[in-house]
């Protein structure tokens, strides 16, 4: 499990929700339950008070369209480590308030050890190529090589917000599986995993076109390119910088995470 750090005051100044921290529980444990302070609220018990009205005393939470699970890959201790043993499920959440409570109580990406990863995936999807919902898919990714000058914490936060806010794809696309950030010696890499590589997959998926069902290859490619453009915007890249899309199967066959790119934007 990811190391728990003290609440990061002001860690999300550009976020749409004006919160510096959300209490998780009296002990600060990551149990997925948002605890409201015990002092008497300055409102009637029948009033609906959101976190936007009062960040300390609220009785309404904002549900997300999907449930999301945060995963953490800890650095290997030796060459014999199994990657599956390094991958740890941290917590699942379903509201805006729970997201901020978790984010403000875990270690920032910039402070993680080398070879660590954070993965934020829809509930029920493991951040592995072999997962049935991933094996026919791929990912958009970009590596930031000037590590000292990259605001990786802000970029990763923006990508997570775009994912849980469902702004990376349109309703019914059913492509976005999750997002990931990798901490390496020479770079930070942020990726966005999709269900397909632009063509229908066996069994299709949820929704009319999810999983490529009912789409032509050209339509599938158009959907992925649209998602890629939104991903590129989320990580703040300019026109001269390119994000690459590669398939998980291609990467598995190549024996590397750096398979030949199918598309670039």
UniProtKB/TrEMBL annotation:
<keyword id="KW-0648">Protein biosynthesis</keyword>
<comment type="subunit">
    <text>eIF4F is a multi-subunit complex, the composition of which varies with external and internal environmental conditions. It is composed of at least eIF4A, eIF4E and eIF4G. eIF4E is also known to interact with other partners.</text>
</comment>
<dbReference type="Pfam" id="PF01652">
    <property type="entry name" value="IF4E"/>
</dbReference>
<feature type="region of interest" description="Disordered">
    <location>
        <begin position="1"/>
        <end position="21"/>
    </location>
</feature>
<dbReference type="GO" id="GO:0000340">
    <property type="term" value="F:RNA 7-methylguanosine cap binding"/>
</dbReference>
<protein>
    <submittedName>
        <fullName>Eukaryotic translation initiation factor 4E</fullName>
    </submittedName>
</protein>
<dbReference type="GO" id="GO:0006417">
    <property type="term" value="P:regulation of translation"/>
</dbReference>
<dbReference type="GO" id="GO:0016281">
    <property type="term" value="C:eukaryotic translation initiation factor 4F complex"/>
</dbReference>
<comment type="similarity">
    <text>Belongs to the eukaryotic initiation factor 4E family.</text>
</comment>
<comment type="function">
    <text>Recognizes and binds the 7-methylguanosine-containing mRNA cap during an early step in the initiation of protein synthesis and facilitates ribosome binding by inducing the unwinding of the mRNAs secondary structures.</text>
</comment>
<dbReference type="GO" id="GO:0003743">
    <property type="term" value="F:translation initiation factor activity"/>
</dbReference>
<keyword id="KW-0396">Initiation factor</keyword>
<keyword id="KW-0694">RNA-binding</keyword>
<dbReference type="InterPro" id="IPR019770">
    <property type="entry name" value="TIF_eIF_4E_CS"/>
</dbReference>
<keyword id="KW-0810">Translation regulation</keyword>
<dbReference type="InterPro" id="IPR023398">
    <property type="entry name" value="TIF_eIF4e-like"/>
</dbReference>
<dbReference type="InterPro" id="IPR001040">
    <property type="entry name" value="TIF_eIF_4E"/>
</dbReference>
